[in-house]
Amino acid sequence: MKTRWQHILWLLILATACEKQTQEGHTNHYKHNENDAISIVSRPVNQVVLSSQKTIKPIRGSNKNAFKAVGYIDFDERRSNKVAVRTSGRIEKLYVKYNYQYVKKGQAIADIYSPELNTYQEEYLFLLKSSEDSLAEKAKQKLELLGLSQSQILQLETSGLVTQTIAISSPVDGFIRFSSDAGSTEGMSLSKGPMSPMAGFSSENSRPAATSSSAIEEGAYVNKGQTLFVVNDCRKVSAILSADIASEAKIKKGDSVKLSPEVSAGQIRTAVDLVEQVYHEKQRFTQMRAYLDNPMRTLKINSLINAEFISGPSGLIVPASSVYDLGTRKIVWVKTGETEYGIGLFEPRIVSTGISLNNLTEILSGLTADEDIALDAGYMLDAEDILEENP
User: What is the pTM of this model?
Assistant: First the structure.
């Protein structure tokens, strides 16, 4: 009998000890999980975000809508500077001998003889001698408006002699073209005169200057306001591309295009800036224009160029909502793990993007196809927090 009660007592003691040990184990496990969660949420906001948001994987795009076209390099007319005469007269001296000649800023292009200008010079000299300061100042301003430089006016004041001709100078460094408004010298073309080694033109495809009955030549008379020359520095050029009617619906402004100039072994990737319809000899076709930087003038005017249009993103593609634009850079939120309760851990990743079309964005670098990213990057975090943490 005594032995039986002893066994019961020992069982009760053992059960109590096991229950206490189990409770301590649960408590330690809870503290461990709690510490892990605190360590996660206490990390800087630009390093990790806890979210249950839906994720997606990047997909591979295709170039099924890609097609090719040909074209040529032309002037960027936005950089053309017109040189016009400010008074009627006669061309006494012409310093440029051929079309597309390279000139420097301030270089004399032509000398103009103008009876009207001579009259205003004599008027200014007369007012200087009569001590009519206010009238003399207005006469001086008139001479400046007519194209006389400060040095020419100073020479007039010092010598007291009327300048018979006024020099027209180039406003910028660049290549000169005879304006079609005034015509050009008969027979002027790239074949005459030495070509500057810096010239941004292709000699094989150069177009000769147009001829006109009102040619710009020594002895020719010009009217006030008439444009004589156009100077373009060719630091920027435009690629003129043509496509058939069947390709018209596939081309839109902003579409990506790869250019392969004949004068360069490399490729240029840019976007279409202008799409226009052209009618020529009762035929209609689509013409595209893309503006290109040309700081070293390696792209030659009139040189041929091959183009490949891409009417949609290629490579890795993600929804546009997955990319967060911070102004100077763009990020996506990459899922790096999960908590014990299934909440995702997301970290920001800077990516390089390409074209965006139809709510899809092309990822050029910074992301791989097997990574999961947040579907709506804008809901992950306030941009101000990221900017403060990642200046």
Answer: 0.52
